[in-house]
Amino acid sequence: MNYIVLDAAVFNYYRLKKIIPLHRKTVIWIVVYKMAIMKKIGVLAIFLVLAVGCFAQADWVLGEWRTVDDKTGETKGIVEFYQDEDTGLYYGRILRVFYNGEELEDSGFENMIVIKDMKEEEGILQGGIIYEPEGKKNYYGKIYHNEDNTITLRGSLDRRGWLGRSQTWVR
Q1: What is the per-residue pLDDT for 98?
Q2: CA neighbours within 13 Å on the CB side: how many for 21?
Q3: Contact criterion met (CB below 8 Å) for 126 and 144
Q4: If you write DSSP's letter for every residue of the chain in order, what string do you get?
Q5: Is the pLDDT of residue 117 over 80?
Q6: Cα(77)–Cα(148) distance, rounded to whole angstroms?
Q7: Residue-wise pLDDT tens digits, 81-93
Q8: What letters, b where the CB count within 10 A reaches 16 and e where it falls short, cover 98-136?
Q9: In the chain, what percentage of residues exceed pLDDT 90?
Q10: How far from 115 is each of 40, 50, 76, 78, CA to CA, in Å?
């Protein structure tokens, strides 16, 4: 009769005996069973990591942002970012418009959606459209979060972002 000394995990299962007489088929079954359990644990761990990543949100963009003119540095408007609860997509609408440092009343741009259908991928909002009200044009958009609590919007003619320009907004 062959005796096989088992590792600690299996031995604890059969802890009443110090050395357990087993047939070859039983030993193979125990090894396969342990591998199946390890595989399930590994799949569960991967699923949990992916689930946490899927539910990660771009909360850094939510709220009001001040748009700044590239040349003069003056505030041009206040845009509010929000997330649609049903789709999970991000949008931006104009709250206030400024001209020469003064707020314009009834400019016609209030509540206009200028950022549409952005989704968060790898810490970047992308896949949506940025609308420029002055030029009345739509651009493919990407929004990056910067270290200094600013965001950089990249509007481009092509999806890759090669032909376009960037603008930085502040809180």
Answers
A1: 92
A2: 2
A3: no
A4: --EE---HHHHHHTTT-SSEE--HHHHHHHHHHHHHHHHHHHHHHHHHHHHHHHT---GGG-EEEEEE-TTT--EEEEEEEEE-TTT--EEEEEEEEEETTEEESS-S-TT-EEEEEEEEETTEEEEEEEEETTTTEEEEEEEEE-TTSEEEEEEESSTTS-SEEEEEEE-
A5: yes
A6: 20
A7: 999 989 999 999 9
A8: beeeeeeeeeebeebebbbebebeeeebbbbebbeeeee
A9: 25
A10: 42, 28, 16, 13
CB 133 within 8 A of CB 112: yes
Task: Report pTM.
Answer: 0.63
Query: Tens digit of pLDDT for each residue in 47-79?
Result: 544 444 444 456 888 899 999 887 888 899 999
Task: Using alpha carbons, select from 115, 116, 123 the residue that is nearest to residue 57.
Answer: 123
Half-sphere exposure of 23 (CA within 13 A, CB side): 3
Q: Tokens standing for 7?
A: 């590792």
In 3D space, the residue among 25, 28, 21 whose CA is nearest the CA of residue 4 turns out to be 21
